[in-house]
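Worked problem 6 (solution included).
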Amino acid sequence: MKKSTFFSAVGLLVAGFLIAVCISMVRPNLIDLGPAPKSDIVAASEGERKGMFDDLVAAPSTKKSAPLAFDEDPVEYVKEMQRSTLRGLKGVNILVLGVGEEMAQYGITQQQIQIDVELRLRQAGIKIFPSNELSSLSDRGYLKVWAHIGKYPYSNLFPIYIRAELLQAVWLDRDLLTGCSAVTWCTQPGGAILPLNYLGQFREEVAGHISEFINDYLAANPKD
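Solution. The predicted structure is:
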């Protein structure tokens, strides 16, 4: 009985090892994006930051966010709260991440996605700040587009992950001298596995996330 139990245990260990090997063989060849980006603490002296908020302290906004009602859809409430953070935004900087050089052989490049994003925003009348152009922290955002695409080895399958998020400079309500950049608006992350003949859908999926930003921006900033 003990001998049978011993061989059963050995069999389980061998089976576990074989499963681990199989998983490692089919692991998708995703692009290493490196460590998660850290929030950039606003680089300004205490005097400069104090001056930025003199008007805010002297004349605080009278429009407060209404508390969430029990019968209100929490998803729609969050969307409306995110949309309201776009009010008064003058433009954005853009950063596209996640498209590796190896995808060029399939007609997809990071520069191509960057151009797609910028074109859609310009067509909607949203100003794009060059990456080397400084502007007031209070009137622009930092639109980061995660357009991640990789390839499963020994196959023509491509896992994708897409998400757009806007970072803005924010300050603590309890301490207006303490600020950092934080995500104030984002899309619901989307993922899928595309076959080779459907790779064109990747750009369409990215465009859908950008359209969501454009719609919310225009709703928060209606033209006169």
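Discussion: Residues 17 and 141 are 49 Å apart (CA to CA).
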